């Protein structure tokens, strides 16, 4: 590559930042705020759809993220927000968001979180190299691509409520990221949210009535909404067992998604987080965060693709920035008025921002395939990727939206992503010609690179 070409390439792609303190504390705080806003749209949508508390959700998204970072040695720049995978479980137990039934659904989610601990123990016992044979890039790459593409429909639906505002959000992000300088270039999401929210307000798209009525300070959750409130004279053991049996299988899909998310974050940050700190630690953190949140009446937690999109855009990979976002979410969860402001954010703003972020997720999946030199001249690789893509996307956008079957009177519904992922893993395991070897030697190189930052 010539010096001119190299200079052009470097000017187009900002350098990766692994130590955000070099940017200064004020900029670190603004970057943290950006991560917080990036997760807001999807995180608050889950309680809105299920009937759970928005403030409770923010509190345990923040606490769950900090717990995850403690268990992951503070290395993985991941934010944990509300998981969409369990919405079907909440709907099965509390179809209309009944307050008295939601704690039973949360009990089922807490038990599902225990499965994370089991898989974490397997990674710990057998090591990532043996387990990761079942999750090579030819499987995880298409899974990550599908995560973004499946989410894309919700972004389009939100944008459709007011395309003018959505386009303002998209255009602001693109302009700031491509032509911005300094801090503007690395906080395009936050600027996009602020500009488009202001535009929506000017157009009369925002209803601030709930904001005026909300208190400035209040507790994020009440005891009656927790799982602990169930254990008394009115405890329904049959409903509890039903909730556990119905919801626990959903964890298999979310655990596979977790591996895909960590693969995406690793690819984005150019760090092998699967090996160091290890999937056993990230799974443990995700599982314990889910258990903690659900016990106190908040949605299940999961590593968030939206924040991976922010990482890809800003190239600021310092996990401390994400922890700032977590702390801000915790503080703001004690303000019902702030929750009302966020709740008043029109869906067109969320849609415009999400459209960019979901696209970035799929792009990271493509990058995972390219950088790992997946050979698509081999028929077995083409077949594995094809099965994952078609099943995941095809089932997700089918009339049913899932594969549903009955076992001992219990109806189980598996999402397209779960079916596609399982099919890809099984097909990759049985087909001959596997050429992927998980290289743990990358850890030493990464640690050496970190000492030079």
UniProtKB/TrEMBL annotation:
Cellular localization per UniProt: Membrane
Keywords for this protein: Membrane, Transmembrane, Transmembrane helix, Transport
Spans through the membrane: 28-46, 52-71, 78-95, 101-122, 134-157, 163-180, 187-206, 226-252, 321-343, 349-370, 382-403, 409-431
InterPro entries assigned: NCS2, Xan_ur_permease
Coiled coil location: none
One GO CC term, this protein: plasma membrane
Gene Ontology molecular function, alphabetical: xanthine transmembrane transporter activity
Membrane protein topology class: Multi-pass membrane protein
Highest taxon of source: Bacteria
Any Pfam family the entry gives: Xan_ur_permease
Sequence similarity: Belongs to the nucleobase:cation symporter-2 (NCS2) (TC 2.A.40) family.
NCBIfam families: ncs2
Entry protein name: ABC transporter permease
Organism: Slackia isoflavoniconvertens
């Amino acid at each position: 590559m010539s010096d001119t070409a190299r200079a052009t390439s470097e000017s187009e792609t900002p350098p990766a930042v692994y130590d955000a303190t070099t940017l200064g504390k004020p900029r670190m705080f603004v970057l943290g705020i950006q991560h917080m806003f990036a997760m807001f749209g999807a995180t608050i949508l889950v309680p809105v759809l299920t009937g759970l508390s928005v403030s409770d959700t923010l509190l345990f998204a923040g606490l769950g993220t900090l717990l995850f970072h403690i268990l992951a040695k503070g290395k993985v720049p991941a934010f944990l927000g509300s998981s969409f995978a369990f919405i079907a479980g909440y709907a099965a137990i509390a179809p209309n968001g009944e307050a008295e039934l939601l704690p039973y659904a949360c009990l089922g989610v807490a038990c599902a979180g225990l499965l994370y601990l089991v898989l974490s123990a397997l990674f710990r016992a057998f090591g990532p190299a043996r387990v990761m044979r079942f999750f090579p890039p030819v499987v995880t790459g298409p899974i990550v691509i599908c995560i973004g593409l499946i989410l894309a429909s919700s972004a389009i639906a939100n944008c459709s409520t007011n395309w003018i505002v959505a386009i303002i959000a998209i255009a602001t992000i693109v302009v700031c990221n491509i032509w911005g300088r300094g801090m503007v270039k690395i906080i395009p999401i936050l600027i996009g949210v602020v500009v488009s929210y202001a535009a929506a307000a000017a157009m009369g798209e925002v209803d601030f009535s709930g904001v005026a009525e909300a208190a400035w300070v209040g507790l994020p959750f009440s005891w009656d909404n927790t799982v602990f409130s169930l254990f008394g004279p009115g405890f329904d053991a049959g409903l509890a067992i039903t909730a556990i049996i119905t919801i626990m299988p959903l964890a298999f899909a979310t655990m596979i998604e977790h591996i895909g998310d960590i693969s995406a974050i690793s690819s984005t940050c150019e760090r092998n987080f699967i090996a160091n700190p290890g999937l056993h630690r990230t799974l443990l953190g995700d599982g314990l965060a889910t258990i903690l949140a659900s016990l106190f009446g908040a949605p299940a937690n999961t590593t968030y693709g939206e924040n991976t999109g922010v990482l890809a855009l800003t190239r600021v990979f310092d996990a401390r920035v994400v922890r700032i976002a977590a702390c801000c979410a915790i503080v703001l969860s004690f303000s019902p008025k702030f929750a009302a402001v966020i709740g008043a954010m029109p869906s067109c703003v969320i849609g415009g921002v999400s459209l960019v972020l979901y696209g970035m997720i799929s792009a990271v999946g493509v990058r995972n395939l390219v950088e790992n030199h997946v050979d698509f001249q081999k028929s077995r690789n083409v077949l594995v990727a094809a099965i994952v893509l078609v099943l995941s996307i095809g089932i997700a956008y089918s009339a049913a939206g899932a594969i549903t079957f009955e076992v001992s009177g219990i109806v189980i519904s598996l999402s397209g992503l779960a079916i596609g992922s399982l099919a890809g893993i099984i097909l990759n395991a049985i087909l001959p010609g596997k050429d992927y070897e998980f290289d743990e030697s990358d850890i030493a190189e990464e640690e050496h690179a970190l000492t030079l930052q």
